[in-house]
């Protein structure tokens, strides 16, 4: 069976205030064309269809058009909700849409109920595990620990139990939206850390022939059977080095997997430039970036006059301007942004505690209190999105 694995469309999202709706429409054109060109048997969409729980009307219309085109192609599609989606909103009308071959899986209770499709070699069971917010689904799965590993393990136990009842030789595919250990994140994914732990081991998915993951925006293989398609478009400058693709996956009769990457259309390349302003404006090696979306980090010791106006004369699509002044090696002063770079909310809060105490950081009890506070805020936000 030939599968096309994609995820993280984030319909309605902009890039530094630049609308990406046209680029997202171009990607969906490309998706439908790839389905036809490569004789795809089933399309897999592993969550984060929308960028937020209540998407703008233009994004909803784009999604509606995509559903009609996929249904019109006569190729089944299996979709799950991600952590950016409102599962309840996305799942409205799922039963009716299913008649057109679009299988939306947004309810955690249905984790062990697959979409069963057949090819010349027999049945393939597709299990959709929507994003599982641990605090909201722990009762559904009867787990004591509130964490991603616990709820995903319980969901996969249902998958394995259902698969064990099926005819020998039934192959299985799991769609999930999670941060799996070994995956490389970027700056544009929303943090899903619970209790200080974000990632779950790939072994959670043991027993599945192929695992189509969503959440991380870089296309990557955690193992030969566990893969992220990544987002079809770049949503942060941290993705400047990404090759945006979908996975074209062949699932053979014995459950073995062969996969290749299909490139997605690039609306405009990204460039991260760093140096003194005069150097950036004069360097001939940067000519190739003059039509790119640019993030420029100026290292001038003294901030130059009208830097954005001067940059956009050469790089008209400059979207982000940062400052990192060159300083002597023995000068400890650093910008606020530099001090916070690569640090999560928990680390920033702990640093603040140490700052106000004259260097004495939080003890284990206080670290736990901070962690629980951040978890409570994130869970409250998730509940608000579910409630709509």
UniProtKB/TrEMBL annotation:
Biological role stated in the UniProt entry: SbcCD cleaves DNA hairpin structures. These structures can inhibit DNA replication and are intermediates in certain DNA recombination reactions. The complex acts as a 3'->5' double strand exonuclease that can open hairpins. It also has a 5' single-strand endonuclease activity.
Oligomer and partners: Heterodimer of SbcC and SbcD.
PANTHER family documented for this protein: COMPONENT OF ATP-DEPENDENT DSDNA EXONUCLEASE (PTHR30337), NUCLEASE SBCCD SUBUNIT D (PTHR30337:SF0)
Family annotation (NCBIfam families): sbcd
GO molecular function list: 3'-5' exonuclease activity; endonuclease activity
Protein name stated in the entry: Nuclease SbcCD subunit D
Domain Nuclease SbcCD subunit D C-terminal residues, every copy: 267-355
Gene3D superfamilies: 3.60.21.10
SUPFAM superfamilies: Metallo-dependent phosphatases
Keyword Hydrolase in record: yes
InterPro entries cross-referenced by the UniProt entry: Calcineurin-like_PHP, DNA_Repair-Maintenance_Comp, Metallo-depent_PP-like, Mre11_N, SbcD, SbcD_C
Keyword Nuclease assigned: yes
Family: Belongs to the SbcD family.
Domain of life where this protein originates: Bacteria
GO annotation, biological process: DNA recombination; DNA replication
Keywords: DNA recombination, DNA replication, Endonuclease, Exonuclease, Hydrolase, Nuclease
Domain annotation Calcineurin-like phosphoesterase: ranges: 1-218
